[in-house]
Design brief:
- This protein is of the alpha/beta class.
- Helix content is 26%, strand content 27%.
- It folds into four domains: 88 residues, no CATH class; 119 residues, Chitobiase, domain 2 (2-Layer Sandwich); 378 residues, Glycosidases (TIM Barrel); 157 residues, Sandwich (Jelly Rolls), CATH 2.60.120.260.
- It has an eight-stranded parallel β-barrel, surrounded by five helices.
- Helix 12 links the parallel strand 19 and strand 20.
- Bound molecules: acetamide and zinc ion (ZN).
- The site of acetamide has 4 residues, from loops.
Length: 768
């Protein structure tokens, strides 16, 4: 027997045994993602058998076609059309319902769906899909007889009209088959918008007939950065890399998306992130100089010029783009466009004189308005990243708020539509777990819990402005995702949480909502596993904090589900965790989730250093930025150093652009032999160490002194800077120590994030 045949038998066995248990499970518990607005379980069951019959309003042809294919591909059932009276499934029109709303009523007699639009009917069928066995997701499942559905009533509608996922296909290219897969994930979770980031410095991915070199040349780079952008030195793989979508591919994908009620918003980046285009046509840049398609990540100074020929080039490109995408929106980028070349370009300076434009920021506004007016003339609307607010917002533009929610607030208050996609909650390229074995990512830290707690409408926004918040979107930048498996690992399960935010609505009690989500998650994980989709498992994570209570340090281990068992090892003892563990000697604390004698997930290992700072009373002049305050100020004196690879691990605290003073006081004065801390440096992520720190101390007798200490490069880690003070230490005992840490200041021209305030990331204050 072949391996294939064996596998088939195995699958059949799973399905056959799976089916009966499935029926019982369903009757007792209904698990749906995103959660419906109203669900009433009626306690009965409906047997739903092979080859069900359907009657649907003719307007719902597209939704029912999807369902017909779903049943044919999975269990191999036929969905036969019949009369209203005879049908097991009836889908009727109800013009009183909202645009994407539906009702699903399952009684002992059959299924009854009502909706106003095809989208509503489609979402009802996605709900039904999640009520059916997950094995139906498998090609050619062979269920034995009927499945049992619980009788229930669902009344459902989305909280937000914009429910989006983004995918960057420039940094890494994904074949059209995967784009379709990705769209199918969106559909399962009732997401309705795919933001397709098609062009950037590292590759132009959409065929433009008038300018064939955009793809012939601009879609390929000579090599790609290996490892992280912050590595010193940077290394490259020496492999030519690229790919693009033909216009036929695009049409196929757009049609497929339409069949799933997903609109596709293409993004054509301008005026920045244009190096791939300029590589193909150097004349559209300011200098005319040839440039390569970028081989590493970042922000590049090669931006589109504002001369008439380039404006015409962009309009020609947009004409072809608009003809391929039937939706209203065209995303024109607008983010991270350095103005260096514009400042020295005769054409751009002439443009400013001619149009009476006072600054290069205002020239960017002129540029965006010019493009907007062209796009509007063709019956479409533009979306831009929040930088398009700088220098004045184009009159009809929709703003995608990414550097925070502030841009979105300003735009909404000014009467513009807004999509919320702040880095703090919506960047799915950030780490989702602080374990060192997580696959390499750009940085940051965005656990599932935080996505679920996001509220797209900021508190305090006026009611009129609130109506302009259309929804939210998860962004998937792929610098560090070269395979589709990496993409799915980063989006699942965070996209599930996003779907709850934008469909079910913001949570009143985020902690409770998170706990409930974790309890419901296994059901969805089963579906992902059956579909062969790689995903991160938050149920296997340990959250370990090292925390002080009355001058003693404790290790506290939390598990996602309360019934999980943890084994820990510390000071040469191995024990089952039951309560916080007091730590009194320096050493390694190791913890592992267990199922019986079987280790589950990663082992977590932390080196704990007991030092005099732990027993101090510590205060900071400025709280850390909410995006990087995971560990609270406790992280500065809990005996645990931050990771030398990442600043998002909860042991580093981030401060944005502020000077910081940290005071440590001791009830009983101490003699010190060393004061030490570390700063992270990741210029690509706007993180800079200060050059020097002022240390002030007060002796037991009340005398005050100070000294400036230089911050120095680390011998071992290029991402770290050290503050070490062990010469000229106070001779007398001290009772107070203050570290005055200045912000690096404004990020210099030519660097990533130029002109923005630099971040300061601070580690443990080790006092010996
Ligand atoms: C962005 O992340 N540069 C929009
Ligand atoms: Zn120019």
């Amino acid at each position: 027997m072949s391996v294939k045949a064996l596998l088939f038998l195995f699958l059949v066995a799973v399905v056959v045994t799976g089916c009966d248990t499935q029926s019982n499970e369903i009757a007792s518990e209904v698990v749906l993602f995103p959660q419906p607005q109203e669900l009433l379980l009626k306690g009965g069951t409906l047997r739903f058998g092979k080859d069900p019959t359907l009657y649907a309003d003719p307007d719902f042809e597209q939704a029912t076609r999807w369902f017909r294919h779903y049943l044919a591909d999975g269990p191999g059932w036929k969905l036969k059309t019949t009369t209203e009276a005879e049908a097991n499934i009836r889908i009727d029109k109800d013009t009183t319902l909202g645009a994407e709303a539906y009702r699903l009523n399952i009684s002992e007699k059959g299924l009854h769906i009502t909706a106003r639009t095809n989208a509503g009917a489609f979402y009802a069928l996605q709900t039904l899909r999640q009520l059916l066995p997950a094995t139906f997701e498998m090609q050619h499942t062979v269920p034995r007889g009927a499945v049992t559905l619980p009788t229930l009533e669902i009344a459902d509608a989305p909280a937000f009209s914009y429910r989006g996922m983004h995918l960057d296909v420039s940094r890494h290219f994904f074949p059209k088959e995967f784009i379709k897969e990705y769209l199918s994930y969106l559909a399962l979770l009732k997401m309705n918008t795919f933001h397709w980031h098609l062009t950037d410095d590292q590759g132009w991915r959409i065929e433009i007939k008038k300018y064939p070199k955009l793809t012939a040349q601009g879609a390929f780079r000579e090599e790609t950065l290996v490892g992280h952008y912050n590595d010193v030195p940077r290394t490259y793989d020496d492999q030519r890399y690229g790919g693009f979508y033909t216009q036929e591919d695009i049409k196929e994908i757009v049609a497929y998306a339409q069949s799933l009620n997903i609109r596709v918003i293409p993004e054509i980046e301008m005026p920045g992130h244009a190096q791939a285009a300029i590589s193909a046509y150097p004349e559209v840049g300011c200098t005319g100089e040839p440039v390569p398609v970028a081989t590493e990540w970042g922000i590049f100074e090669n931006v589109f010029c504002t001369k008439p020929e380039t404006m015409q080039f962009l309009k020609d490109v947009l004409l072809e783009v608009m003809s391929l995408f039937p939706g209203t929106y065209i995303h024109i980028g607008g983010d991270e466009a350095p103005k260096t070349h514009w400042k020295s370009c005769a054409d751009c300076q002439f443009r400013m004189l001619k149009e009476g434009i006072a600054s290069e920021d205002a020239l960017q506004s002129w540029f965006i308005e010019e493009i907007e007016s062209f796009v509007n003339d063709h019956g479409k609307q533009i979306i831009g990243w929040d930088e398009i607010l700088e220098g004045g917002l184009a009159p009809n533009a929709t703003v995608m708020s990414w550097r925070g929610v502030e841009g979105g607030i300003a735009a909404a208050e000014a009467g513009h539509d807004v999509i919320m996609t702040p880095t703090s909650h919506m960047y799915f390229d950030y780490y989702q777990d602080s374990h060192p074995e997580e696959p390499l990512a750009i940085g940051g830290y965005l656990p599932l819990q935080k996505v679920l707690a996001f509220s797209p409408v900021p508190e305090g926004l006026s009611p009129e402005a609130s109506h302009h918040i259309l929804g939210a979107q998860g962004n998937v930048w792929t610098e560090y995702m070269s395979t589709s498996e990496q993409v799915t690992y980063m989006i699942f399960p965070r996209m599930i949480a996003l779907s709850e935010v934008v469909w079910s609505g913001s949570k009143n009690d985020p902690e409770k909502a998170y706990s409930e989500l974790l309890h419901r998650l296994p059901k969805f994980q089963q579906r992902l596993t059956i579909k062969g989709i790689t995903h991160y498992n938050p149920l296997q994570r340990l959250d370990i904090t090292f925390s002080l209570a009355r001058d003693t340090l404790f290790a506290i281990v939390e598990t996602p589900l309360s019934n999980a068992t943890v084994r820990y090892e510390y000071a040469e003892e191995v024990q089952t965790y039951s309560a916080p563990v007091p730590l009194t000697t320096s050493g390694t604390f190791r913890a592992q989730m267990m199922e019986g004698e079987q280790a589950v997930g990663h082992a977590y290992s932390t080196h704990v250093k007991i030092h005099q700072g732990i027993a101090s009373t510590l205060s900071v002049s400025t709280p850390p930025h909410p995006a990087y305050d995971e560990g609270g100020i406790n992280a500065l004196y809990n005996g645990v150093l931050g990771s030398s690879e990442r600043f998002g691990d909860g042991e580093w605290l981030g401060f944005w652009g502020e000077d910081i003073a940290i005071a440590m006081e001791w009830n009983t004065p101490i003699a010190i032999s060393k004061v030490e801390t570390r700063f992270f440096e990741a210029k690509g992520q706007w993180v800079y160490a200060p050059k020097q720190v002022l240390v002030e101390w007060t002796t037991a007798e009340g005398m005050k002194y100070s000294k400036t200490i230089e911050v120095t490069a680390s011998d071992t880690d290029t991402s770290l800077r050290n503050l070490t003070w062990n010469g000229e230490l106070p001779q007398q005992k001290i009772k107070k120590l203050v570290l005055r840490i200045p912000s690096y200041g404004t990020i210099p021209q030519g660097a990533q994030g130029a002109g923005n305030p630099a971040w300061t990331f601070l580690d443990e204050l080790v006092i010996e």
